[in-house]
Amino acid sequence: MATRPRSPIPAKYTSSLSGRYSYPTNPPGTPVPRDRQLPGWAGLSIKQWGNRIALDERCAVVFVHPAELPAPPIDGIPPFAANFLLDTMRAAFLLVRNGVVRRHPRVRFIFSHGGGFIAYSSHRMAVTIANDTGRSPLDVLDVFRSFYFDTALSSSPAALPTLPAFARPEHVLFGSNWLFAPAPAGQCFANGLDTFLQPSPLKAVKHTNAEALFSSSGLRRPLTGPGPTGRAARFVFKLVQPGTD
Q1: What is the pTM of this model?
Q2: Do the domain assignments include residue 169?
Q3: Looking at the domain assignment, is residue 4 inside a domain?
Q4: Which of 1, 80, 85, 240 is most buried (most C-beta within 10 Å)?
């Protein structure tokens, strides 16, 4: 998604924000003019995870997409074939492990490529984080499920069922990986959505989920916690495992 700045970036934030960015000029907490709702609320490309308060104040949508690996690639394995997916999962793990998502609930994170290995490894990561932090694994899973995921290069018959089994239905967004992937590759995976999704979830993935996310009310509303069933499960878990948060 290409965006243009609607107002100059404050000098104190420019060291951490770069590339694609866009946010309205009205102060946080005030209504967003209709002509700035879409596409005025696009993403932020971040050099480093700094100035988190600025992102939270602006109800930023942060698109997490791997680019450069923190180590040299392994010979014979292109980074985009495997390492990018692992790097995506590492980013999600650290955001949850370090409590960033809980402290900044108005920031929305979109993870590319179906979130890499997030859905597949979510319970394993939740147990690990719970053991390290004393938090309930169920609460940790809820934080992982607060993320949004695009379907770029991830709607194959093997990969696609994993994502809706884990993610909230309204948090799955259409993705093509263009310009990074050739158009035929993006089209091949996009065809998988038409093949394997029913009309209602297909419409949600292609249109309504993104419209709800980028609407003014969607961005201003803090992420919701677990419903009645989830709260009951947490109560039982804390009885069995006292001392968890």
Answers
A1: 0.70
A2: yes
A3: no
A4: 85
